[in-house]
Amino acid sequence: MAFAKAKQGKYVLRFDDTDLERSKQEYIDGIGVDLDWLGIKPDEIYYQSKRFDRYNEVVAQLKEKGLLYPCYETPEELERRRKIRLSRKLPPIYGRESLKLKPEEVKAYEEEGRKPHWRFKLPNFESDPFKTRRTDVHWDDVVRGPQTIDLASMSDPILIREDGSYLYTLPSVVDDIDMGITHIIRGDDHVTNTGVQIAIFEALGAKAPTFGHINLLTTISGEGLSKRKGDLSIRSLREEGFEPLAVESLAVLIGTSENVTACRNQKELLEHFDLTSASKSSAKFDPADLLTLNKHIVHELEFDEVKARLEKIGIKGEDAKRFWYAVRGNIDKVCEAKNWWDNLEVNKTFDAVSPEDREYVHQSASLLPNGELDENSWKVWTDALKKQTGRKGRALFMPLRQALTGLDHGPEMAVLLPLLGKNRVLQRLKA
């Protein structure tokens, strides 16, 4: 998305839902919710499950050209052949044995109930497909620079499963051609796949798009993030209360030569975005970095930007705006404001003051300024207490903070005092 917007292009969202059994509507809806939360608005949306007729048409063309052939091996048979090749110190690639099958052998397999999977015949030979030769595919990667893949080092890829469903490879190439895709930015675990896809583009008489392969995120210990474990899922981050721009800032800038800073909007983020600055090594994700970015963003959020969210957690009324500006500098996430709201609003007392300071706290009530409390009241009050008791610094301020909030730290007491109101202040001082 960032690359498309930076180049004034279009961002296409395409759902690879050709595996109908695994592609459930709830997953598709979840992706839509995640993107909407991040503020990502696709210019075009496509579903591969609605384009089977087009893929079938291309399959017929490849079969007619002899570039797609049926294979009847079971997974166990393929694994056995792979081990045999390894024991002979040969590359563990498919040997195209199915091309040697006689009609009666194919018939026997079909009578046995076997259904074929279909492989694309890579152009890595002159005339005899069983005598492969080095065949280099080159492209200038916008992230990694010049890349080369030798097609002779690879197995012919499976494009269609035994049940007739498509793997992502062929539909993606067909879609890229039909939709006029100019750039594909993806993880560097797809570098090898790119060699195969370029071969399919050329087999279909089309020019391949420009590819860019970005580094993958790992945990701080260097382990790969797992979708199955829910590592760093957008949904989990949203539910944990992170700001979308904190997530976007980290996702776009981590692993680049740019400083990972908290951007206030997508326009500002795009000004920092440059694919060529991406490192070729994996980027390590540290949750502490995300929390730091989030904190910086939250501390600058205006009341109007969070008003609706605050109302959902019960923070509303005439004091809500003043309250937000009082506490935002002391929270890491917007949802944490609820803790301070409850602290100030609920009629309760705290047992946080040390025994030696209790008498001082009780006596302090008598010097509380008359009338309604405002942001000047704290200074007037503590000045009077300092003069009468001789206390200063921490000994003067901390017992009062502990009595009024139950904590040793937090927002400025000058702004908390009027939010508490005189009745609560007196109640907590005399507890």
Automatic annotation (TrEMBL):
Q: Is-annotated flag, keyword Nucleotidyltransferase?
A: no
What NCBIfam families does its record include?
Answer: gltX_bact
The UniProt record lists the EC number as 6.1.1.17
Which GO biological process annotations does it have?
Answer: glutamyl-tRNA aminoacylation
Please state every residue range assigned to the domain named Glutamyl/glutaminyl-tRNA synthetase class Ib catalytic.
2-290
* Keyword list, A-Z: Aminoacyl-tRNA synthetase, ATP-binding, Cytoplasm, Ligase, Nucleotide-binding, Protein biosynthesis
Specify the protein name.
Glutamyl-tRNA synthetase
Please give one Gene Ontology molecular function term for this protein: tRNA binding
Give the family, as the similarity comment puts it: Belongs to the class-I aminoacyl-tRNA synthetase family. Glutamate--tRNA ligase type 1 subfamily.
Q: What is the lineage of its organism?
A: Bacteria, Pseudomonadati, Pseudomonadota, Alphaproteobacteria, Hyphomicrobiales
What InterPro entries has UniProt attached to this entry?
Answer: aa-tRNA-synth_I_cd-bd, aa-tRNA-synth_I_codon-bd_sub2, aa_tRNA-synth_I_cd-bd_sf, Glu-tRNA-ligase_bac/mito, Glu/Gln-tRNA-synth, Glu/Gln-tRNA-synth_Ib_cat-dom, GluQ/Sye, Rossmann-like_a/b/a_fold
Which Pfam family, giving just one, matches this sequence? Anticodon_2
The chain positions of domain Aminoacyl-tRNA synthetase class I anticodon-binding read 354-430
